[in-house]
Amino acid sequence: MTPEELLRRAFEARADRVQVAPDALGTIRRRIERRRSPQRRAFTWGLAYVATGTAAAVAAVVLIVGVPREQALPPGTGTGGTPTQSTTTTVPPSVATRLPVYYVATSGGRPVLYREFHPATLAADTLPARITAAVGLMLRGTAADADYTSPWPRGASVRGVRVEGGVATVDLAGAARNDVDAATARAAVQQLVWTVTAVTADRGTQTQGVRVLLGGERAPQLWGRVDISGDLKRADANQTLARLWLISPQQGDTVDRRFTVHIAGSVPEATVILRVRSSAGAVVEQQPVTLNAGAPSRGEAMVQLTLPPGGYTLEAYFESLDDGSEQALDDHAVTVR
Amino acid sequence: VTYVPAGDLAASTWTADQAVTRLFASQYRPLVRLAALLVHDDGVAEELVQDVFVALHQRWARLRDPDKAVAYLRQSVVNRARSALRHRTVVDRFLRRQGPPATAPGADIGALDAETQAEVLAAVRSLPARQREALVLRYYGDLSEAEIAETMGVSPGAVKSHTSRGLATLRRLMEARS
After folding, report:
1. For the complex shown, is ipTM > 0.85?
2. How many structural domains is chain A composed of?
3. In-domain check, residue A90
């Protein structure tokens, strides 16, 4: 028997033994429903998070502060805190909030970062608790937009977070080993750095570096690919973030008939095309949108739309100056109520 | 902004819900089988195919075309199988040390005996991911070289080389055994 014939028969015999769950369609439908959950409706617009990408915003002075090696950091309860935090005020038992979380997706043939906001409930509203929750969401990798993922190994978790002297130290468990290419590993490290620094910026705290511990220890490299021996800072936004973000509405959001679309990006001529499709796929609206800055700067724009109730997909992209092709498309399915 | 209903619904008028339901009926089982050949674990295979259907629902407005949707589903299964395997490398190594699982002999005339079948499958799973994908898509999926290239996101030339290298390794392994 030829190897080809052997393969055909072995594959066929193996495939014949596969049993599928009797209620698989029900499982899929429930998961789709959960993605439409109303908790995503409470999105609040936040200009404070928009990365401007200017050198000044990302350049950071790295402070080296020693962290005892053997000391595991308590989850979400950094002992150091920051000068802006006070322990004298009474904290409510739990705090519901929304946290910025970065994800990785492929655009233009390379891994780039996108950001979403996710609801979280914190035991106490401290900066370390916020970072712990945001990084936990990031590691879980369940973005609202199925195009976004997290390249961190499944099962990775946060052991502890400490914020001290302008450096956020994040101690991870189950994250030491992974088999990804160098570009993806670099994106994963930046995903962590941008998430942590977005949380701190949100709280008005300047973080000058992010330090990564693996199982409580400093490590020279992550996954044999990226140097993480020093304190990490945000890499250049143009090299790291997707060229174009459809910031809001987010994937799965429900909005009022009259709503605002928020777009940011670094695109030629500062021109983005915003296109709206009905749930059947028909184009119901298409318009050029001018951002307040063009490439290489990162600009943004807010556009008001009014649509009858129903399901829609919002698509934002820019046209290649070379061939007019659609570039960097980001799309979100939304419901207009 | 005024709402102007566009009359052009040429590709398909299915809603995302209808697309999931209809494509599930025709594609779910074949995709789970394909995934099982790639990841060697029926539970993982089924879970990742469900992920892919959830993702399809979100993308439907952009796909709209059932043919494109089938290509998208297949491509997503191959991609997700590859990433699932990365997380399972350690488990796989352990399982491989335990030897191939006992399987019931095939009842059909011309079916491979269980031992040969297990050996062929073990040889396939020892191949690099790209070679394994090319072999599964070709000899199980019966896809053309162009379709395999599209599914794997590589050039037809790369498909050729992955296939021939995979076959060569397999031939070597099977010869060493006899």
Report:
1. no
2. 3
3. no
